[in-house]
Every structure is written in C-alpha cells, then in structure tokens.
Design brief:
29% strand, five-stranded mixed β-sheet, alpha+beta, single chain, 42% helix, globular, 3 helices, YaeB-like fold, 98 residues
C-alpha cells in the first residue's frame, strides 16, 4: 500500500525553479528531470523507510541521473516532501524547515 506524497509549497517552488532552469537549456532534459523526480515520489510513497535518515527524522532520496535530492519525512498516513534540492547547495537551506 502506498502512502500519499504531499509536497510542501517551498519544495514545489524548488522543483519548479529547477525544471525551468533545465527547460531553458534543453526541454527534453527538463522532461527527464520531472520524470525522475516523479519516480522518487512514487518510490518514497511505496517505501518511505528505504532511504536513510540524514537530519532529525528527515530522509534523503537521490534523483537518478541528476544532482538533486528529495528530502522528506514520514507521518502516520502520508509522506511530506520538504525540499527538492541541488546537492551542491548548503543543506542549511532546507534544515531549517524541520
């Protein structure tokens, strides 16, 4: 059974910014990026504990083929995404959200 995945507004804005950045350079790559992030959302909904805890109760899932990570935590009846984050950025940006 899969849990619903809820994407916080700030995480959605990060995804949108990353998608737009890729789209401005290569539309096909932007589409692959969106598909890869969607695949992460599907995986974490199916198996939220498959990825290791990296900060408090926040887990990190890599976006395959891209230098992005999805940071999330599990609640009893859902998974909450707090960040879609480029791995070269300072993690303090998302750590303050939890």
């Amino acid at each position: 059974m899969s849990l619903p995945v809820v994407v916080e507004d700030v995480a959605q804005a990060e995804f949108d910014e990353a998608f737009d950045w890729h789209d401005a350079r290569d539309t096909a790559r932007a589409v692959r990026f969106a598909e890869a992030v969607r695949a992460v959302f599907n995986r974490i909904g199916m198996q939220p504990r498959a990825h290791g805890v990296v900060y408090k109760d926040v887990r990190k899932a890599l976006v395959r083929g891209f230098t992005y990570c999805v940071y999330y935590y599990e609640e009893p009846h859902r998974v909450v995404v707090i960040s879609v984050f480029h791995s070269s950025r300072d993690p303090a940006h998302w750590q303050g959200r939890r």
